[in-house]
Design brief:
Bound molecules: nickel (II) ion
Number of strands: 8
Distance between the termini: 21 Å
Number of domains: 1
CATH superfamily: Peptide deformylase
Number of helices: 3
Length: about 180
């Protein structure tokens, strides 16, 4: 088990276009996935992308079988390891909701995302993933995959009157925060 340091906004490694994973099911890849899951769970992240620990690969992890204390009112998203993802919107409909990010600690912002998406990719064994999802699941996937193209959620905020410190915006949930 290894908890890796999570890079914070301003680090140029968060702005790169991540490289596709070319070889699956290697010891090195399994170790990286294990470290990412440990690092995400240690800070109650809804997800984590490899660039956030300085690894320049198209690899994200997200979801949990247990409710997330940082997002207690959101539906469960199945635990997923997703490599080389491709996202396609299923309609033009966008929805606004609050997001936070482990690389942007202490802040939340209102971010528009597609309401419904189709996504494909592979797991760490090279087995294909092909899902149609909506709502919070769709939002988490879009947020995490944005990290693979150098996008942090503040770059998606349109209304900066809805961007601020978590403990000011949401005093009642601040106790559950560790970012
Ligand atoms: Ni993030």
């Amino acid at each position: 088990m290894a908890i890796r340091e999570i890079l914070r906004m301003g680090d140029p490694r968060l702005l790169r276009l991540a490289q596709p994973v070319m070889v699956f099911d290697t010891d090195e890849l399994h170790l990286l996935v294990s470290d990412m899951l440990d690092s995400m769970r240690a800070v109650n992240g809804a997800g984590l992308a490899a660039p956030q620990i300085g690894v320049d690969l198209q690899l994200v992890v997200f979801g949990s079988n247990e409710r997330n204390p940082r997002y207690p009112d959101r539906p469960l998203v199945p635990p997923t390891v997703l490599l080389n993802p491709v996202i396609t919107p299923r309609s033009d409909v966008e929805v606004d909701d609050w997001e936070g990010c482990l690389s942007v600690p202490g802040l939340r912002g209102m971010v528009p995302r597609w309401e419904s998406i189709h996504y494909t990719g592979f797991d760490q064994y090279g087995d294909p993933i092909d899902r149609s999802v909506d709502g919070f699941h769709a939002r988490v996937v879009q947020h995490e995959c944005d990290h693979l193209v150098g996008k942090l959620y503040p770059m998606r905020v349109r209304d900066f009157s809805k961007f601020g410190f978590t403990d000011i915006l949401f005093p009642s949930v601040a106790a559950a925060e560790d970012d």
